[in-house]
Design a protein that fits this description.
- The chain is mostly beta strands.
- It has 2 domains: 246 residues, Beta Barrel (Porin); 105 residues, Cupredoxins -  blue copper proteins (Immunoglobulin-like, Sandwich), CATH 2.60.40.420.
- Helices cover 6% and strands 46% of the residues.
- The protein is built from 3 helices and 20 strands.
- The protein has a 12-stranded antiparallel barrel. A 4-stranded mixed sheet has the order 14-13-16-18.
- The protein starts with 6 loop residues before the first helix and ends with a strand.
Length: 375
């Protein structure tokens, strides 16, 4: 049984969604540790930068003698006001029965914003060239420690090229085993028709140490990685399970690429920093005041902290400055405090009132580590 949705209504809903999102604060780009194979979660791109994503699925046929591929290439650019625009281009599309194996391109605009400390919402308005459909999705992400829960509602003005509107929904979860490694999975289903089976995926995602890239390996029974593709089961060949991977490549902004012509300075090594920057004492900094004196400055250069071990007295302040083109954070190992995303030139400072050890790292680059030792 079907429940058609007029195309005009779907377009109006998508337009209203984009308008409502314009007033919210943007988020930064996220890795495969924040998404699942069939759910993009609250993925967005910060203004003035670009990202490339390669999602590849395949099956083995004829007893493993041949491999049939289902690739999806994605490119996204961050715009002002927190919007991201992009496209997913897939070959061997399966969503339209009369054009199996054809090309499919999804053009989209997306906006993600936080609601409280643990909940993030994302709105997507899209157009699918294969189905000639105006599509949309609303995604919610609930982050609770190492576990993130995702839910998504999707609407299509011309679902699977049938000239009828439709709905689909999906839910998923990410379990972070540590900073680098996570387990992901999701399930979804078309709600406006009873003839389509449940769509699922399960995977292993990890951040690549020493780089801004991330990778996920997974199995799924879904088609290509578009809104309609991840709502549709396979349509070519009888194999029920497909295997694949997703590789994210943050491209950065113009300043990063200009370094090819004008390279940035070499990272400052910890042993070359002046003593006042690494150890606070009577000769290195004045006595701490109630508001906290800045006793140490740590720079982020070349995807490393210029000082890995900082020593201060109780009540003194440590200041971090991002000199990189990449986005960084300063985050406590136990998650008790964190900076926001720090772009080039941004500064984050914190006063340490109690003696002890305070390990920190960068959420974007987990191998960037350091510790503040308060004496």
């Amino acid at each position: 049984m079907t429940h058609p949705i007029p195309g005009a209504r779907a377009r109006a809903l998508a337009l209203a969604l984009c308008t409502a999102l314009a007033a919210a604060a943007p988020l930064g780009a996220q890795s495969t540790l924040e998404t699942t194979p069939n759910l993009k979660g609250t993925w967005s791109v910060r203004p003035g930068t670009a990202t490339f994503v390669f999602a590849h699925r395949f099956i083995s046929i004829n007893g493993g003698d041949q491999v049939f591929n289902f690739p999806t290439l994605s490119f996204a650019v961050g715009l002002p006001a927190g919007f991201s625009v992009g496209a997913e281009h897939a070959t061997n599309s399966e969503i339209v029965a009369k054009d199996l194996g054809g090309n499919e391109t999804e053009y989209w605009v997306r906006r993600a914003f936080p609601v409280g400390r643990a909940v993030t919402l994302n709105g997507t308005a899209a157009y699918n060239s294969a189905a000639h459909s105006a599509d949309g999705a609303v995604t919610a992400r609930l982050g609770a420690g190492r576990v993130s829960l995702l839910g998504e509602a999707r609407g299509f003005s011309n679902m699977f090229g049938t000239k009828k509107g439709g709905f689909a929904a999906a839910g998923g979860a990410v379990l972070k085993l540590n900073r680098y490694l996570g387990l992901t999975g999701d399930v979804g289903r078309v709600l406006s028709q009873d003839s389509f089976p449940t769509i699922w995926s399960a995977g292993l995602a990890f951040a690549i140490p020493g780089s801004p890239h991330s990778v996920a390996f997974y199995a799924s029974n879904a088609s290509v990685a578009t809104l309609q593709g991840t709502s549709h089961p396979r349509g070519i060949f009888p194999e029920k399970v497909r295997y694949g991977f997703t590789f994210t490549v943050p491209l950065g902004g113009p300043r990063r690429w200009l370094q090819i012509i004008h390279p940035s300075p070499e990272p400052v090594k910890p042993d070359s920093m002046p003593a006042a920057a690494t150890r606070a004492g009577p000769s290195a900094a004045p006595a701490a005041s109630a508001s906290g004196d800045t006793a140490a400055v740590v720079e982020m250069r070349g995807s490393m902290f210029s000082v890995r071990e900082v020593r201060v007295h109780a009540g003194q302040r440590v200041r971090w400055v991002n000199r990189d083109e990449d986005v960084h954070t300063v985050t406590a190992d136990d998650g008790s405090w964190s900076s926001p995303d720090m772009h080039r030139g941004d500064v984050f400072a914190r006063v340490f009132d109690k003696a002890g050890r305070y390990p920190f790292y960068c959420q974007q680059h987990p191998d960037m580590e350091g510790v503040v030792i308060v004496e």
